[in-house]
Design a protein that fits this description.
Chain A is of the alpha/beta class and 212 residues long. Chain A has eight helices and seven strands. The chains are: A alpha/beta (212), B alpha/beta (471). Bound molecules: iron/sulfur cluster.
Chain lengths: 212, 471
């Protein structure tokens, strides 16, 4: 997994609450058996004017000029600013895959849906929860100032604005540790093989039908 | 010390190891697998040269991409076909049980788990699918996971988890005739919001929950995720146990007795403490219809489409306005004036036998309205389909002008050929009314099976409580 330590980047404002995973990556693209290549289809129904199908050459498709990511001033954005409950809906990891493939490294919102939040950490994508009032203010600043960039430091758990204001955020110590070092979960778990086997042995005694 | 909640008991029974910050390595008893979220996980195993830790804990089934008619001729879309073939091949390679597309037990993953008795109380159950919460109806700790975690469970039989907060939704009183678990679920989401359960494991309790059938409890737990809760739970009682008796994967003989004794503990202690409690009066709930693009955008069938000017805050005012534009609805329109183009009865929320019976009770002796282009019934599994046919429900539907299809996810998310065209309006028994969910530009109204059948025969939403033949 790609590690996340520090990141400085352009911010794009996606001014909607409850952005669901169907919007982030529509179902037709879930037919892929690959883990990569979802970036061009990120927010497909909002981003393009035609109907997207897997395998299309997206560089030739008509763009929706109103959609935020299509506006020249947000080109190259790597931090997405969003509203409440971002990533609600399905468990599809294609959503963080698409966001990361597009070039996002971090997401900032007042809240995220649980499964989506969890999936982000498995893909080197940092979801940052800030209070709704703070997010609201960031939206205003992004709109007011072209080229608005934020600087994120995971170790210090800070987001720094262009004016030098430092905002702090919470993250679970264990998740932070794994993301900072880009650790592979399966590798870590396999260090506990003996504990897993001991658990299984005990369970086989007390609940043998579970192993039938 | 206060007692433990059902969630605490399930959690404690599965902890293998705990990190200093409380992150636990949990043992997983059952792993359901479908074709959409698993290919990259198997590929990961292959690349790392890993095996499946416990093949007997896995049950796989293709459901999202399968066609619902003319199945003998296979899957027309080559991309869908490849995804299903990839699941078949992965199951062969890794030695896993799969109910293939032609197996009569094939169906929606969350329908077949309980139907086979693969889902049992006291278990941890995961699936690369958010509606895994459904299985919580059996007092199992069941939740959806992403593909990286699917790979992790396949490789290690465990998952790293942080404990959630505990929430109790207590529902007391009697649901009126014609008001179902689906209406209860939608009413709860309308009240607490789609993020209301975020970070929480929700337990449903109270006299109304006890009165629900297992099918109804599954519908309710299924929708827990639409309230933001990864986990929905109902404590064990006699109904839970009676449902499981004699199912193919349920324990037998002496082990059955042993299992039942063990299962009985999976209820919250009377003095258990929850982080949050919500009280609902069942008697106040009417049949529900969603009007927007989020399950929380819901009103009773007696209500009207709301006015964004009356939204509680600015963010919601804009969301409501956007939703109404997408849905092609005007504020203040009575819900019963809204006409539908298609009707979908199916999905892991409402495609079990009880759901089909409720829909058939409305369809019986009536005809699908001329303005409805398509009304389809998609059973949740091959066995549900067979049961419905044994009861003659297929004939009721066909005589009324409904299409009777083969089992699968179908138009719940339209990954197969069943979908809405842009602008089409659908009464659907599924769980998500997100933009484009049932097809790009499609407009979804979530309702119960009886309400969907009624919308089909009247061509618009009607209050099923006013129909004859609805018990
Ligand atoms: S029926 Fe719908 S919600 Fe259920 S598993 Fe299938 S696609 Fe998901």
């Amino acid at each position: 997994m790609q590690a996340f330590t520090r990141h400085e980047g352009l911010v794009a404002p996606l001014d909607r609450a409850n952005v669901d995973t169907d919007a982030i990556i529509p179902k037709q693209f879930l037919k892929s058996i690959q883990r990569t290549g979802f970036g061009p289809y990120l927010f497909d129904e909002w981003r393009y004017l035609d109907r997207g199908e897997p395998g299309m050459d997206c560089s030739r498709r008509p763009l929706n000029p109103d959609f935020v990511l299509n506006q020249p001033r947000y080109r190259g954005a790597s931090i997405l600013l969003a509203r409440e409950n971002f990533g609600c809906g399905s468990s599809r990891e294609h959503a963080p895959w698409a966001l990361a493939d597009y070039g996002f490294r971090a997401l900032i919102a007042p809240s995220f849906a649980d499964i989506f939040y969890n999936n982000c950490f498995k893909n080197g994508l940092l979801p940052i929860v800030l209070p709704a009032a703070t997010v609201d203010r960031l939206f205003r600043e992004v709109y007011a100032q072209e080229g608005y960039r934020l600087s994120i430091d995971l170790q210090a758990q800070t987001v720094t604005t262009p004016e030098g204001e430092v905002l702090t955020f919470d993250v679970d110590p264990e998740r932070k540790h794994r993301l900072l070092h880009g650790l592979d979960d399966i590798g870590l778990t396999l260090q506990h093989v003996e504990a897993i086997r001991a658990y299984e042995q005990r369970r086989r005694q007390e609940a043998p039908w579970l192993f039938a | 010390m206060s007692g433990r909640t059902l969630y605490d008991k399930l959690w404690d029974a599965h902890v293998v190891h705990v990190e200093p910050d409380g992150t636990a390595l949990l043992y997983i008893d059952r792993h359901l697998v479908h074709e959409v979220t698993s290919p990259q996980a198997f590929e990961g195993l292959r690349l790392a040269g890993r095996r499946v830790w416990r093949p007997d804990s896995v049950l796989a089934v293709p459901d999202h991409n399968v066609p619902t008619r003319d199945r003998a001729s296979g899957i027309a879309d080559p991309v869908s076909r490849l995804q299903v073939a990839t699941l078949d091949e992965n199951c062969r390679t890794f030695g896993l049980t799969e109910f293939g597309m032609d197996d009569r037990r094939q169906g929606i993953v969350h329908v077949i788990g309980p139907e086979q008795g693969f889902t049992q109380p006291g278990m941890t159950i995961v699936c690369g699918d958010s509606h895994t919460s459904t299985h919580g109806a059996f007092a199992a700790l069941a939740f959806g996971i992403g593909t990286s975690e699917v790979e992790h469970v396949l490789a290690t039989q465990c998952l790293w988890q942080k404990k959630s907060k505990r929430m109790l939704i207590r529902v007391e009183g009697v649901l009126a005739p014609g008001v179902t678990a689906k209406d209860l679920a939608l009413a709860i989401i309308g009240r607490i919001g789609t993020a209301g359960g975020t970070g929480h494991a929700v337990e449903f309790a109270g006299s109304s929950i006890r009165a629900l059938s297992m099918e109804g409890r599954m519908t309710l737990c299924n929708m827990a995720i639409e309230a933001g809760a990864r986990v929905g739970l109902v404590g064990v009682d006699d109904k839970t146990i009676a449902y499981l008796r004699g199912r193919p994967y349920a324990p037998e003989g002496e082990q059955w007795e042993q299992a039942v004794a063990y299962w009985r503990q999976f209820v919250s202690d009377p003095d258990a403490v929850f982080d949050r409690v919500v009280e609902i009066d069942a008697a106040t709930i009417a049949p529900q219809v969603t009007w927007g693009t989020s399950p929380e955008m819901v009103v009773p069938v007696t209500g009207r489409v709301p006015d964004p000017a009356e939204a509680p805050d600015e963010v919601r005012r804009r969301d409501w306005a956007r939703a109404l534009e997408y849905m092609g609805l005007e504020p203040h329109t009575p819900i019963t004036d809204v006409r539908v183009d298609k009707v979908f009865i199916g999905s892991c929320t409402n495609a079990r036998i009880e759901d089909l019976r409720a829909a058939a009770a409305v369809a019986r002796g009536r005809r699908v309205a001329p303005n409805v282009k398509l009304a389809m019934v998609v059973p949740g599994s091959g066995l549900v389909r067979a049961q419905a046919e044994a009861e003659g429900l297929d004939r009721v539907f066909k005589e009324a002008g409904f299409e009777w299809r083969d089992p699968g996810c179908s138009m719940c998310l339209a990954m197969n050929a069943d979908r809405l065209e842009p602008g089409e309006r659908c009464a659907s028994t599924s769980n998500r009314n997100f933009e484009g969910r049932q097809g790009a530009g499609g407009r979804t109204h979530l309702v119960s099976p009886a309400m969907a059948a009624a919308a089909a025969v009247f061509g618009r939403f009607v209050d099923v409580r006013q129909l004859e033949g609805v018990s």
